[in-house]
Amino acid sequence: MKQGQATATQRLDYQAPAFWIDSVELTFDLDPAKTRVLNKMRLRRNPDVAPQPLRLDGEELNLARVLVGGAGTSFKIEGDQLVLENLPEGNEPFELEIFTTCAPNKNTQLSGLYVSGDTFFTQCEAQGFRRITYFLDRPDVMASYQVLLRADKAQYPVLLSNGNLVESGDLPDGRHFARWQDPHKKPSYLFALVAGKLVAREQQITSRAGHKHLLQVWVRPGDLGKTEHAMNSLMAAIAWDETRFGLSLDLERFMIVATSDFNMGAMENKGLNIFNTKYVLATEATATDADFANIESVVGHEYFHNWTGDRVTCRDWFQLSLKEGLTVFRDQEFSQDMAGSPSARAVKRIEDVRVLRTAQFPEDAGPMAHPVRPDSYVEINNFYTVTIYEKGAEVVRMQHNLVGRDGFANGMKLYFERHDGHAVTCDDFVQAIADANPASPLAQHLGAFKRWYSQAGTPRVHAQGQYDAAAQTYTLTLTQSCPATPGQPDKQPFVIPVALGLLGQDGRALALQLEGEDAAAGHERTLVLHEARQTYTFTHVAEAPVPSLLRGFSAPVILECDYSDAELLTLLAHDGDAFNRWEAGQRLALRIALAAIASDAPVAQAAVLPPAFVAAMRDVLRHPQLDAAFKELVLTLPSETYLAEQLQTVDPQRVHEVREALRAQLARELHADWAWAWEQHHASGAYRPDAASSGRRALAGLALAMLCLDARTSGDTLWPGKTYQRFKTAANMTDRLAALGALVGAGHALAQPALERFHQLFKDDALVIDKWFALQAGRVDRGGDVLPSVKALMKHPDFNLKNPNRARSLVFSYCSANPGAFHRSDAAGYVFWADQVLALDAFNPQVAARLARALDRWSRLAEPWRSAAREAIARIAAKADLSNDVREVVTRALAD
């Protein structure tokens, strides 16, 4: 395990490798305790780099032999590197052979080659390949791979690796072999192997180009019936990428393998994607609508990497968003297209923006803030962040919007023409999009646009409008600023596309004509804010308009606009842009909640929803045209995390109490409407995971939760009883879990027998039991009862901290996703957090570092939480043998 003080890697220090590796032949004799790896490489010196020794990366390897050109050679070990100096001169290729052994069954980090449930798996991104063999483990070294796997046939009947199967057969002593060849060059982080007792769902397809392909989803025996949705999602992704971008599958076969021990969601290894079971296994009885949607999204994401990440990869890890931000954008577009209707597309967009605001915006404002293309890192695993992924996707989305759908497709085509088969940079991507669209705003402001890659922080856009009744003009002034972030005290202006429309007082969309234009041009347009301050004047505006700004969330910024309550109510009732309609409701709720939090009055007096807001929510709930999924989003109050981010100093208990009081009022005053919503939207027919059906279930589930919440104070027994009955008779997991969540969330006496019954029903399904743990760890805290429950659950026979999914379901759900229960005034939550970070760090630093980020925003806390949080962070930092992963996080946190 990498431990101790480590120096930072700097982006500007990048140097091309001194050697290239053209081909790799790997032979594995698989054994859990001692796997033998023979690595035969063909190398050549890089003529553009001055002659120097060959330095190969390696970790926790036992080196047995090194041969150059078939003969022994001198070498030395310096830290984690194998150094060879006596190598052939000149630029002619030479052969290097390295024989090592490793112990996969002792690999608790789940990085490199490891064993899970008697099956071999690999995870090589970002730097796991060096735990398999000595190598130039960097993404700009792309080589051809041929892999020979040998193992006991009874124990490991399935032997998989990247590319195409070229040969297989039996060996003496009950062993067998499989030889795989990847026809495409790839970096080492895309290498993969799997060996074990697995079964596959198979599907033969023919591409639009007329080529036949074999698709396989490999799982453990017993899980095959849960793979239909994953296979359907894969086929949909392949068809979508051909249709939308003209990108076809380039291998004879494409494989997905599922494992329950995985640090990430999934991995795009070329042709052999390895997935967390969470994003593969689903039936209506065991998976929720959200699970079905996530599987479709993640399967799509990893498949789309086949081109955006595999065929064109990153020059170095600072360019991580080159593949991740672009591919998140692609999977978001895929999910929106699969959703179908404009309303369903808008729901998906709102869900993505909620993630950005509740996770990425806080990261941008915290100690781990970094640009989409970071400048330095100590541990690269810490930079698989929402900034790289989600903000990176928003940066790609802005390019898409600035050049248009067809222009973006042309830019993608040029990108692959220039860079297919190469390792490149973020600059190379944006340059291709701009070059394909020379007349676009992106090309005109290219240098300034690239600041999205180099500057950290969330820009703020302040909008101020002025209506001149006599002149019938509306002048909109936009100003932008961005707060300082670590290492970047001053920021230059960004290029910010601001999509907008103007509404009349009655909600009508007004025609838009800018000063100097001959005629109005539609009801929506995009302004490009590229200076610190710009002013736009609209003419022929017959009445004072209500501006609808940042439509579709056209840029990842914080919009500051002094809307009146009346204007927000107009937008909520009439805006043709679904995102801004939702946003108006959120702004109203946020305004009410923040005023209550700031008040000196007791929560019961301060946290009161005004009649106009309640009436507006009732109108949305009863609206005959709005989709159910959209209604559920509008009627869900802003989260505690999002509320806290609006405050300079955070009293987490005040935030929690205010939000709960507002929820209780909404439950009480809309009681009859919630009952109506339940009766109109709950269903007992055949399950379908489509957007419309999922939306109805979501709204019915919210209604049930609000009715049970109201019953807590009213003493009503009808709705808790109906909810328990729904829990028992539900025909799908979405409805069953919603009913269970309603009882648990309301703290009703029926919650405990329901939890016991749920566990009894699903005790043999690990993913469902993860939901059981998460529900209890994430429930509303009443009198400090959640932490004792979490501690008790850690002793449950089904809990295992070493399984990442199980650790996330309980420990992360409490520490990272339940602020009202975590931020205890007695600091017990922080003590528990520190204990678990240290425990995890002893065997899985990647997972530990992610948990360590739960207190990134500690410096914003009020006392006594602030001092207690700092003490907990300092206790972790003081540990001598802390991993680099965790040390980087806590050191940066303490410096905040």
From TrEMBL:
The keyword S-adenosyl-L-methionine does not apply. Residues 565-895 form the Peptidase M1 alanyl aminopeptidase C-terminal domain. Residues 457-561 form the Peptidase M1 alanyl aminopeptidase Ig-like fold domain. Keywords: Aminopeptidase, Hydrolase, Metal-binding, Metalloprotease, Protease, Zinc. CDD domains: M1_APN. Belongs to the peptidase M1 family. This is Aminopeptidase N. The lineage of its organism: Bacteria, Pseudomonadati, Pseudomonadota, Betaproteobacteria, Burkholderiales.
